[in-house]
Amino acid sequence: MVEWSATPLSDALERGDVLSPDCPSRLILNHVTSKWGVLTLLSLRSGTLRFSALRRKVSGVSERMLAQTLQQLEGCRLVDRRSYAEVPPRVDYTLTPLGREAADRVAALADWIESSLPFLLEPGPVAA
Fold it and tell me: Where is the HTH hxlR-type domain (predicted)?
């Protein structure tokens, strides 16, 4: 059984765990913070979506990339996939409780980026 610790990332960074190439959290970090991972998590915050609706919401993602992203997030236990034996087949995706927590944290970062965009895109040298 894998034990889970609620150690804040800032503490983990101080210890250097996530900075180590052998740290298993790097794989999760990669899935959660990839462009399509972030956009998928943000899109599922509004509730359960079918694949086609999710693809429309995550504008610009290919079918293959969305499927891969969903598999990765499902493998990290952040997204739950439910398939129904219907014709045509129906598959729904929803955030798990851990996924909702991750999505909320990613949303805070996305909100900060959006509100800071004028400064982030400002030309010229960065002030020290």
Answer: 23-121
